[in-house]
User: What shape does this take?
Amino acid sequence: MPAKRSRSIASQASAGRLLSCDGLVKSYGDGPPALGGVSFVMEAPQFTVLLGSSGSGKTTLLRAIAGLVPLDQGEIHVTGVALTRANLKTVRRRLGMVHQEFGLTDRLTAAQNVLAGAAPDLSWSRLLFQAYPTPLRQRACSLLAEVGLTEIQANRKARELSGGQRQRVGIARALIGQPQLFLADEPVANLDPQTASGILALLREAVTVHGVGVLCSLHQTDLACQYADRIIGLQGGRLVFDGPPADLSPAATAALFAGAGAAAVPTSTAA
Amino acid sequence: MTEVEELRARKPEAWRLKPAFDARILLLSFLAFCGLALSAHRLELGRLFSDVGSFLLASAGLKDGSSIGDGMSGLVTGMFPIVVDERTPIEYVDDLEVRLVRPFAHLEQVATAETVLDPDTLEIVTRETAKTFLVEPWGYLGLVLLKMLETVEIAIWATLFAIAASLPLSILCARNYSPHILVYAAGRTFVSFLRSVPELISALFLVLAFGFGAIPGIVALAIHSTGFLAKFFAEDIESADVRPQEAIAVTGAGRLAVLRLAVIPQVLPSFTGLSLYILDRNVRMATVIGLVGAGGIGQELKGRFDMFQYDRVGTLLLVIFLTVLLLDFLAARIRRVLI
Ligand SMILES: Nc1ncnc2c1ncn2[C@@H]1O[C@H](COP(=O)(O)OP(=O)(O)O)[C@@H](O)[C@H]1O
Ligand SMILES: [Mg+2]
Assistant: This one.
């Protein structure tokens, strides 16, 4: 099994690329690897969907890119900067993350949650008293309006908002730091289909309006085909499909969602 | 066949379910029973039951006299009626002009008959002398209320100092925010130590260091409360939802920013609840540590108790009881507003 590939290929040209993952391997304890050598590259800001069944390693991959999961092997570069302990903050400033369970601070208002996304640019004393500069506050408000919240909702506590509204706040919070790459882990898993479409449309807008690359994990093939520019199929921690939605044949879909634990179909698909 | 396979092969009718009580629990219960029996024997707990029994019999009129009844009757009869006024012979009052103009204060002349030996005639005669008292009808109650206020103030200051000290300490003692595992271990040990010092004992020594009054009381209560609050604040920080924390961390923010924006707002209600509990507890403890001279109403109570002035003790106990009741009610309201 080609768990590890020649490292020089990706490193050479990682500069100028939005994201490059090279031979990522991760095991939890002594179970089977959650990531068994994943490599791919995102060149331009696109809506890229990570498609796979539950347990295929989507969350692990996205968390690894955010520096939340230490890898056993492999290298990650974000806009040419290697993800290392020393570079962690530099890399993270170029990232925004949107979570399945929204990850909002429930007791802060929607606006305060959005402003919290700008924390790395603010002094400690400003953060302590949550005294944000006026231009930043205005930016937060316009982002909230852009994702579809009203002034009244902006001043509601996050826990008083509906699931869809919370996810909108989550997107606004990720946008305020002006990231280059969005990581979204099943952002619509907890939402009804209609709300889900609205959220995915917003993430598409992040690509088209703000020029942010989006790497979004999903387990619904129909949604992936509807919104994605490119689909990366994961199964059992391996990359088993990579291409535009049009190339995802019913057979490939069936293979992608074949019984969990079944050996991945050996493919030579890679970036 | 392995054990697992054997288990799988068994028919549902033949499944063995865990018993609600197993041999281990029965053995432990037996050991606990033996230990308690031994301890009861050592502490003469039998006497507790015989004393209470004879007291109940005596109260019902089936028996005359019981050791509890005899011990308490002097106290209880001495306590009523309680004292609310203050009568002082004017020769003991230095600031008579000031105290006389206060509301309700007045002078009272009391004629007393005195039997004395006349030095000239060498006869025993009864002489009428008039003694003047300064009477302040609400004087003692006022003093007690002032002492109670002092006790509440001691509790408030102790709680404020404890909150201020335990906020930074709790960060050092929270596994996920402690700068180093050694700092974490040292912090936890220190906090356990603070919590293990009983207020009454530390107050005893602090009275030697600071002298009688409110200060040793405040320090003694603050030490113990810091230990308590830091431990529970730290546990709240550790168990706070990690998802918002990760979301802020992934923007590239530092640990303190994450703490401020994703932890503190979430744990604030619990912090408030714990602080209110400690305030409530400190009011009660401040009364107790007054007994060893650490200020407030307890100090007054101990003094009167030692002088057998049980009527004044009655006033003091009533005021303490009503205050604790009132604070309980207030704390419940504050909690409802804040949380
Ligand atoms: N914290 C963890 N500890 C142990 N095993 C984990 C942990 N997180 C994920 N796994 C395992 O790693 C595999 C991939 O999980 P995950 O990345 O969550 O997949 P997905 O997000 O696609 O459902 C699964 O088999 C899962 O059981
Ligand atoms: Mg997942």
Remarks:
- Chain A has eleven helices and ten strands.
- Residues A 58-59, 186 surround magnesium ion (ligand 2) (CB under 6 Å).
- Residues 1-12, 260-271 of chain A have pLDDT under 50 and may be disordered.
